[in-house]
Amino acid sequence: MSLTHDAAPTPSTGRRFRAYTTKHLDELTARAGLGADERLAVRAVASVLPFRVNSYVIDELIDWDAAPDDPIYRLVFPQADMLPHDDVAGIADLLRRDAPRKELNAAANRVRAKLNPHPAGQMDLNVPKIGENDPLEGMQHKYAETVLFFPKQGQTCHAYCTYCFRWAQFVGEPDLKFASSEIDHLVRYLHAHPEVTSVLITGGDPMIMGEGVLSRYIEPLLQVDTLESIRIGTKSLAYWPQRFTTDPDADDTLRLFERVVESGKNLAFMAHFSHPNEMAPTLVHDAVRRIRGTGAIIRTQAPLIRTINDDSATWESMWRTHVRHGMVPYYMFVERDTGPQDYFAVPLARAYEIFRGAYTRVSGLARTVRGPSMSATPGKVCVDGTAEIAGEKVFVLRFIQARDPELVGKPFFAKYDEKAAWLFDLEPALGATRFPYEQAPPEPAAGLAAPAVPVPSP
């Protein structure tokens, strides 16, 4: 009998979903012990970056006795020093004198504009087209085999992570949103591009959608013969596992997953876990078991975030726990060059040591994980370590994915820099004047975004 149809587990945490937003922020940060000025500064940050949490995270995941230093608290609550002091002070002054909403929004937008809201060219460089001048909204086609699709109804989350590189999707500015409700356009594009074998449904969080809406996006994909896998990028297992256990449409959702698997396609559930504490509740274990019972494969990934998971023991614990529950460790990401990167980023040299420290202490079943990986403009670049070559200390780098497929898997080198936190902080090594991805790329396939990558300014 399918695990999908087991009796509903752990009803004690089956309460209805309740969201907390900025209007609850002062009350919640007071609970964390913050003084009046600190709470005002947090509200100022939340005027620029999105804030949303829910009752499950508040009641089950955060250790309020340890707040504001508790890692889950820091994962979802803005910090006063996440943005430059002058920017925070200016917005705090507007809040203090109850400035008009229009003035506050204008100030927030000026700060947002400095935070690189759409890294890696996702609003232009990656957008696919049908025809010469017919861009398809809410889709990205960066790598030949994979298309990303952003369903319009999935452009929020059960809770927002403070580090999220897609923060611009959630701040209420139409010019920063990236979404589509046209599944027919996606299907038409897939038929025209048989080289695409995988679709990643992302957001936001697709699992914020009810089963009826989610199925309207997924069912048409089952008729595309050239499609081999459907991925769902989500943090719902960490932030609202009830979605798969006690929510009214939990069973219907799992039956939808079964239909994907029965169609002969791989269903990859791309679960974001940022800290071992997110796996502690038994409700999460129940949700994982039910999803796996449909035949879906759960792969886990997260960025390396300063003050939250920046030590080897945390990652070792996460990967061991994931394997124990039948999930597949997949990626450790480097914090992207957007939003409060300066606050959360870990230098690449330190990131590699954290990765290696955890990797050396887990079994081969957990060594499916890759990292630390940068999802940069030219592709996914992995830091494979450091070496000394001809008397020069270098980073050894490798493309896991690339706009130019010829670069994939080929090592290249950058000068060692203990402060560098992103690909574009690095310089070529061993006498080279350019990185391989800065050479002239091949012509793109018809309809695929051009892979040309601008050379970053020094």
From TrEMBL:
Keyword annotations of the record: 4Fe-4S, Iron, Iron-sulfur, Metal-binding, Pyridoxal phosphate, S-adenosyl-L-methionine
Top-level taxon: Bacteria
Keyword DNA repair: no
Transmembrane segments: none
Keyword S-adenosyl-L-methionine (UniProt): yes
Gene3D superfamilies documented for this protein: Aldolase class I
Cofactor dependence: pyridoxal 5'-phosphate
Signal peptide residues on this chain, from the entry's feature table: none
Protein name: KamA family radical SAM protein
Species name: Nocardiopsis mangrovi
Organismal lineage: Bacteria, Bacillati, Actinomycetota, Actinomycetes, Streptosporangiales
